[in-house]
Write a structure and sequence with these properties.
This protein has a three-stranded mixed sheet with strand order 2-1-3. A two-stranded antiparallel sheet has the order 4-5. By secondary structure, the chain is mainly α.
């Protein structure tokens, strides 16, 4: 029996191919802003971390500066107290000045110890800030480069979508309105797939065996047929023999 494909079946197949290409590009176009948003979010997170380290380093330096000022004031106070001790008239006054000097010296030692602690704490902070600044600079370059690639890709995709949209309009215009309507309905219901091939007498989409007579009618290609189970348009497309290039029936 001569096997042939119904003309509308080929048109529907071409239309689905175009729709699948369009869907893939639209998916890419939709994904690009999400990708950019993700890398910008990561960049923002790294920037916030850097700002936190900078703030901690700044606070550390501010505390050290204050303590250094306190030490200077304490040393000045001790100098004055020693001068005043020289004028002490009683033993009690002398001991009072001595006690104040010892207290001030103790406060200076505390401040010096704290400065040493702050210096120890500042070293890793300073290293982190410098590393983060260098890393962030490179990351910003990378983000800007990726954004440019995304913008260029989106522009190219928009051009391609326009071209494919024109081809789709032409392909859809060759179909009967009822067939086009059925195609759109089936495609929507079938998650973007409106066509299935027959493989070994089965619908490749739902894997249901076709009735022998139904398969024979499909091979004749006299009408555009749909799977009795899943409702997709059916195409009989025999496998090509690797030896001589002829079509081999898989029914």
């Amino acid at each position: 029996m001569k096997v042939q494909m119904h003309p509308d079946a080929r048109l529907v197949s071409d239309l689905q191919s175009l729709d699948q290409q369009i869907a893939a590009i639209e998916k890419e176009v939709a994904a690009l802003p999400k990708h950019i948003a993700a890398i910008e979010k990561a960049l923002e997170s790294h920037l916030r971390r850097l700002e936190a380290d900078r703030a901690a380093l700044s606070a550390n330096q501010k505390d050290r500066k204050k303590l250094e000022g306190d030490i200077q004031m304490g040393e000045q106070k001790i100098s004055k107290l020693r001068d005043q001790m020289l004028g002490a008239k009683t033993n009690e006054q002398y001991k009072a000045f001595q006690h104040e000097i010892e207290y001030a010296q103790n406060e200076i030692r505390k401040a010096e110890d704290r400065i040493l602690e702050l210096m120890t704490e500042s070293e890793p902070l300073d290293v982190n800030v410098k590393k983060a600044e260098a890393s962030l600079k490179e990351e910003q370059k990378t983000v800007e480069a990726e954004k440019k690639v995304a913008r260029d890709r989106t522009a190219a995709d928009e051009v391609e979508l326009k071209r494919l949209g024109g081809q789709r309009s032409d392909a859809a215009g060759k179909l009967k309105p009822a067939t086009l309507s059925a195609y759109d309905r089936i495609r929507k219901k079938g998650n973007g797939v409106a066509i299935a091939e027959t493989v070994s007498g089965r619908c490749s989409a739902c894997q249901i065996n076709l009735r022998p007579q139904y398969l024979q009618d499909l091979k004749r290609g006299e009408t555009l047929m749909t799977c009795e189970s899943c409702g997709r348009f059916l195409i009989y497309n025999p496998v090509v023999s690797m030896e001589d290039g002829t079509r081999v029936s898989m029914s």
